[in-house]
Structure formats: C-alpha cells, structure tokens
Amino acid sequence: MIKSDDTGKLILRLTLGILILLHGLFKLTGGVGGIGGMLSSHGLPGFLAYGAYVGEILAPILIIVGIYTRLGGLLIAINMVVAILLAHTGQLGSLTNNGGWALELQGMFLFTGLAIAFMGAGRFSLAGNGGRWN
C-alpha cells in the first residue's frame, strides 16, 4: 500500500471530488444566477449556467465513487476552463501579493481534472480498472 499507484489515484480522486463538490453544494443552495448573468454578458444563453451542476455535482460524485472517472475528470476540466474564461481572464497573468499565481486554485482543479481524465480511477473504485471511461 505504501508504493501504490492505485492509492495515489484514490487520494487524488477524493481530494478533487470533495473540493469541487463543496462548490457544487453551495450552488445548490445559492443557485446559478450569477453564472447565468456572466454568460448573458458574453452573449451566451443563461440556461448554460445549469452546466455548473454537471461539472460541480455530477462529475465529482462520479470521481469520488470511481465510475466513469475519466469522463468526470474531463467534465471538471471543461467546467474550470469555462469558469476561467467567464470570471478570471483578467487574472491569467497575475500574481498574488505572496508571489503565487492568482488562479492557483482554478489551475489546480483544471489540471487535476485532466490528470484524472488521463489516469483513470485505479482499482480502488466501484468499477475497479474496468471500462473505457474508468
């Protein structure tokens, strides 16, 4: 268990899944009206804001339990690209007062989602190693 790729994949899945799911649960109680407004200001239909529920509730659940894990990782990565384009483009080249990238959290979510999409769930999942999307 100390030198196990599957244990590393489990830790990565649980970390990303839980942290993104917390954002999704907040949106369940607070709604996605703010996202709809941002979409509308960019000339996009506001109903696309409901896609945040896919990227921040459905995808993390898939990743946590380990079914359709690669798809879940890809959905989170897409969700983060949209979030960065809608709300954070002005910060892409910015640093914080502490010298870190202003989009560290968004970047971590994006690239961790991509890593999971490429690596899959590992054997510590409901689907084990089976399936194209796992």
Plain-language structure description:
The protein is globular and about 45 Å long. The protein is mainly alpha-helical and 134 residues long. It contains five helices and no strands. The two termini are 21 Å apart.
Key terms for this structure?
134 residues; 63% helix; DoxX family protein; cell membrane
Layout of helices and strands, plus pairs?
Elements (H helix, E strand, L loop, with lengths): L4 H26 L2 H9 L9 H15 L3 H19 L16 H16 L15
Helix pairs in contact: 1-3, 1-5, 3-4, 4-5
Keywords: Cell membrane, Membrane, Transmembrane, Transmembrane helix
Subcellular location: Cell membrane
Protein name: DoxX family protein
Strand content: under 5%
Give the mean pLDDT. Answer: 92
The coarse overall form would be globular
Instruction: Please give the alpha-carbon distance between the first and last residues.
Output: 21 Å
Q: How would a crystallographer describe the biggest sheet?
A: none
Keywords: Cell membrane, Membrane, Transmembrane, Transmembrane helix
Membrane topology: Multi-pass membrane protein
Subcellular location: Cell membrane
Protein name: DoxX family protein
Put the structure in a nutshell.
The protein has 134 residues and is mainly alpha-helical.
